[in-house]
Design brief:
The protein is α/β, with parallel strands linked by helices. Helices cover about 40% and strands about 20% of the residues. Helix 3 crosses helix 4 and helix 6 packs parallel to helix 8.
Length: about 280
């Protein structure tokens, strides 16, 4: 479909109030493992992030990389085991997690942003001891529970004009390294930064009243309604920890949290720069 120059101008004019609303504010984007599988889509998402950065939005990108970790472990003949949705992480596994997340996945995203005309710096939770953690549960090994967040490496990176790209590996004062859930990290960092909003990009449309009916999307949820939705089974399984993180972010001072389907082209731009909400907004 060809868009005329007049139509392009009209689209930009309609986006203006939203550009003004977000200009100079921090937006944290959590980019999830399963939403990252398609390379073309990944490039498009990074271009969208660069566009937001170009119009004055201070974007902070927090990423996971579960599928890439699983693939690397498989190649190395190291079995993957999950307990309650969390990867059981022994010493050998946490070394692979650090290598894949802080190395390959992080630098690939930085490279895509730079090639799209943005400026990005890759960070992980070990840098500046940004994310300090402790053992969450002995049964899970080196899966970390956050004990302290120091966002100075993030604010310094933003102040220097770069997009911080953060992989969710943490550490403790003894030098142990931990694998930390990306939703948890994104919520805590967004809270510490008092972000305008947190966008959680995943591989589902949002919260559906009926999981088999895409048209039953719940567009907005007040945080006080979340426990009832859990009791009714509308929020269940792997969505529960994700929603807990959304609620946590709001309680820590984030204005809004969006759960978006990362498989939809330009989902971030449609959600932020128009009144045509795509996913579920928590407020």
């Amino acid at each position: 479909m060809k868009i005329s120059n007049a139509e392009k101008a009209e689209i930009l004019v309609q986006a203006l109030p939203y550009i003004q609303e977000y200009n100079g504010h921090i937006v944290v984007v959590k980019y999830g493992g399963n939403a990252m599988i398609n390379e073309q889509l990944k490039k498009a998402v990074m271009r969208d992030i660069v566009l937001l950065w170009q119009i004055g939005v201070k974007v902070v990108l927090v990423h996971g990389g579960g599928p890439e970790i699983s693939e690397t472990l498989k190649k190395m003949d190291i079995p993957s085991e999950f307990v309650g949705g969390l990867r059981k992480t022994d010493l050998e596994t946490v070394n692979v997690v650090q290598m894949v997340l802080a190395g390959k996945v992080n630098k690939d995203l930085v490279n895509l942003i730079e090639n799209s005309g943005g400026k990005a710096l890759g960070l992980c939770g070990i840098d500046g001891h940004m994310i300090e953690a402790k053992v969450m549960d002995e049964k899970l090994g080196y899966v970390g529970e956050i004990t302290k967040i120091d966002v100075r490496p993030v604010t310094d990176t933003l102040a220097a004009g770069y997009i911080p790209v953060i992989s969710t590996v943490g550490c403790d004062k003894e030098g142990n390294v931990y694998n930390i859930n990306a939703d948890t990290v994104a919520a805590r960092i967004a809270g510490e930064l008092k972000a305008k909003c947190l966008i959680s990009m995943t591989d589902i449309r949002g919260i559906l009243r009926d999981k088999n009916d895409e048209s039953s999307l719940i567009p907005a949820v007040h945080v006080s309604e979340a426990p009832q939705l859990m009791r009714e089974g509308i929020i269940s399984g792997g969505m529960i920890p994700k929603i807990d993180c959304c609620v946590e972010a709001i309680r820590r001072g984030v204005e809004k949290v969006f759960i978006l389907d990362g498989r939809v082209p330009h989902a971030i731009l449609i959600e932020i720069l128009s009144d045509e909400g795509l996913g579920t907004m928590f407020y």
